[in-house]
Amino acid sequence: MRWFECSLLVVFLVDLLATTGDLTLSWTSPIYPKLYSNNTSINPLGRRISKNEDAWLGSLLNFGAIIGPLPFGYISETFGRKTGLLSIALPHILSFLIFAFAKTIHLFYVARFLGGVALGGGYCLYVIYIAEISKDCNRGKMSLTINIFCAIGNFLPFVIGPFTSIFLFNIILAFIPVTFFLLFFFLAPESPYYLVGAKKDKEAEKALMYLRCKDQNGVAEELNYIKSFIGMDDQGRLIDIVRNKILRKSFLICLILIATQDLSGFCAITYHLQTIFEATGTRFRPDLSAIIVGVALLLSSFIAPFLVDKVGRKPLIICSCAGMFIALNLLAGFFYLHDRNISTKSIYWLPIFSLILYIVFFNVGVCTVPWTLMSELFPNNMKQMTTAVASCFGWISSFLVTKSFHDMNSTMGRCGTFWFFSSMCLLCGTFSVFYLPETKGKSFSQIQKMLSATSETD
């Protein structure tokens, strides 16, 4: 067995947890129609939910995700990356079980919040663990496998939710984090970087031997590199970001990219995908339209992992922003005509085409590349802290957008809402052209030297 087969197995197990996380994102799409139903055999609440309850049900996930990086980041730093990832599975499992048996809206709120806490913690830790068990030559591909499995997570609710009860739907979903917990506990090693930092060199050596499927001599050079890299780092502090020009620049870049994930409307669109299609009044069935978009989400997730280490991070981000800008403008144009009672019969296909285009280009770059950059642009002593803070910032943006989605539609019109999302894509794409560095194929130390050189010329 060659080295990459062992590490690839472990990466796929982490990806299974990423699948669980993104189940929570599109979970609302098939659930909202059931909760708006007056049929008590479909709706366990026994009544229709209000628009305000709709908003809270969607946004509480994001509120939980704001908090998630803090406790799980602490667990990861104190007890290890593996323990941190295992602990994330527990609130996911509890969340789905509460959904399955809940009879009141407040229990739904609790479950959404718990799922959000786990989701936020996961996005903070996935890429750090994968980056630390991967080799420099394939770190980008390994990190972006997360994109594929996140897309599977987004896809499954579209194809299961409309055709099952709320109880059965959530019981099925709970099996995924349970499977991850059992397999990861027995098959995954601790991160070699964490072990070296914790002065557990022998355990780090064993972890590398397992991941690379090599003997002691085969991992000696890489182990020495990790020791030297960890040895260069002092304890990182949040104030260092303000004082250090390189860290400040890297942090600003990551904040803008991560905020664009949410300000481009992804969560708001994903949560309300089925109801968005209902609002278009086209001849396509809303549930089938959502499934088609889900298929596009799944298939397009395979693009970035094959391109990220060939094309590079920067071109993918720029291309992604440009494509989303076009797609959102097409959708906004459709709603502009539809809401003014101008016939849209000849372009009934435009909403589904626009959303497929949006999803494809979102997956090409903006979806996952920012998290890959988070694991690459910072030294090891700052990585956990910066990822946690940036993740919180991103989920705050997502919470605000999701909570205000209905209000935006009311005040700006649906066309105005999607024009706002498109303008955020344009701003991010323009920023990336001038300021985003390329980290393709570079080691952690080479990236730090490159950032140092570019900062001196600014």
UniProtKB/TrEMBL annotation:
Alphabetized UniProt keyword annotations: Cell membrane, Glycoprotein, Membrane, Signal, Transmembrane, Transmembrane helix
PANTHER family registered for this protein in UniProt: GH17672P (PTHR48021:SF47), PTHR48021
Species, as recorded: Psylliodes chrysocephalus
Similarity comment: Belongs to the major facilitator superfamily. Sugar transporter (TC 2.A.1.1) family. Trehalose transporter subfamily.
Signal peptide: 1-21
Coiled coil: none
Protein name: Major facilitator superfamily (MFS) profile domain-containing protein
Cell membrane listed as a keyword: yes
Domain of life (superkingdom): Eukaryota
One Pfam entry name: Sugar_tr
GO-annotated molecular function: transmembrane transporter activity
A single GO cellular-component term on record: plasma membrane
Major facilitator superfamily (MFS) profile domain: residues covered: 7-440
Cellular localization per UniProt: Cell membrane
Membrane topology: Multi-pass membrane protein
Residue stretches spanning the membrane: 55-76, 83-102, 108-130, 142-160, 166-187, 251-273, 288-308, 315-336, 348-373, 385-405, 417-436
